[in-house]
Design goal:
The protein is an alpha/beta fold and 344 residues long. The protein has 13 helices and ten strands.
């Protein structure tokens, strides 16, 4: 039977005077030594690195000592925001499109951007694509008028990018086109079966050979938004203040592992780990994962705050959020910067 610490202390104290204080001090040291369990969200396996961060052993210096990490899977950001509001998640994975919802709709004024994970459209790296059939009626963006377009979800990053692209080309997303929702895995079938005329294609689905053979890229997400924050790590300020030391250790290991995965000399092993984790053949990842055909991952974990501000301003112009947001008020990069300084 496992006794509660208070019960154990009382029992020790009954044996000899003064043992109560000894037990109290010992138990306090024991509690202090317990590693902090950090719950980190992810959505897409492999692409969201938290899903397989510790698949590579022997790189992390502090894991299991000052902290442990629990990777928590979510289907999307709304339940993630709810979990952060209730204290059931420590680090959320939001994008520029969902971060304002956490601040404004959920009332999480203490939400802080603490690190970058993946960035779309960074110079020289991958950007999400908007694809049309090779034999279809759409040859230019102007041809989209009167057509049926697919999106994964209203207000998502690719949805905002698509609507911004339409607006830049004089097409009204409400009256000039029909937009329907579908999950990313079903996009290829919808396009090739001629149920829609355009689909957003994101990694890893955009690397499907059958899709590449029958369709081509009309535009990219960066054409509408420039570089954009596809995935940023956020946490509540109280959690950061309470657990700063363990968080610096965790961020140090996060950077160590991110650098290991993205180092070209480790590519074959990184792909093998991803394939094992995702239960897919290595060929599904070898041509793009952790290369310049993948989303950009900053080696120091630093997000592009100016880009995030621009993305959110576009989001507001399109009517997805009501009030302006000064992103700088919701940033705390002190932890990731301290972590990076240890690796110099």
């Amino acid at each position: 039977m496992i006794r509660r610490p208070s019960q154990l202390m009382q029992r020790l104290a009954s044996f000899r005077p003064g043992w109560g204080l000894f037990a109290l001090l010992s138990l306090a040291q024991w509690a202090h030594a317990e590693p902090l369990n950090i719950r980190v969200a992810w959505i897409v396996p492999v692409s969201n690195i938290a899903s397989m961060l510790f698949a590579k052993k022997g790189v992390a210096a502090h894991e299991g000592k000052s902290y442990t990490m629990e990777a928590v899977h979510f289907q999307g950001t709304p339940p993630m925001i709810t979990a952060m509001a209730t204290g059931d998640l420590d680090i959320g994975l939001l994008g520029f499109s969902s971060f304002p919802l956490g601040v404004q709709n959920a009332g999480l004024a203490d939400l802080r951007i603490i690190a970058d994970e993946i960035r779309d459209g960074a110079p020289g790296y991958y950007s999400n694509e908007f694809m049309v059939r090779n034999d279809g009626p759409v040859k230019t963006i102007a041809d989209l008028k009167g057509k049926v377009l697919a999106t994964n979800a209203y207000g998502s990053a690719v949805d905002i990018a698509m609507r911004a692209l339409l607006k830049k080309n004089g097409i009204d997303a409400k009256s000039d086109v029909t937009i329907i929702e579908s999950g990313f895995p079903g996009m290829k079938a919808m396009l090739l079966e001629k149920k829609v005329d355009l689909v957003p294609a994101v990694l890893p689905f955009s690397e499907d050979p059958a899709l590449r053979a029958a369709a081509h890229t009309l535009a990219m997400e960066r054409d509408a938004l420039g570089p954009n924050a596809l995935g940023i790590w956020v946490a509540r300020s109280g959690f950061l203040q309470k657990n700063r030391a363990a968080m610096v250790d965790f961020m140090e290991d996060y950077l160590r592992l991110t650098r290991w995965y993205t180092d070209p000399k480790n590519h074959d092993e990184a792909v093998a780990l991803a394939a094992t984790f995702a239960k897919r053949p290595p060929e599904a990842f070898s041509g793009w994962l952790f290369t310049k055909k993948d989303y950009y991952r900053d080696p120091n974990g630093l997000p592009d705050i100016a880009a995030i501000q621009s993305n959110i301003d576009t989001q507001r112009e399109l009517g997805f959020i009501k009030d302006p947001i000064d992103v700088g008020k919701f940033v705390d990069l002190s932890i990731v910067k301290e972590a990076a300084s240890r690796l110099r």
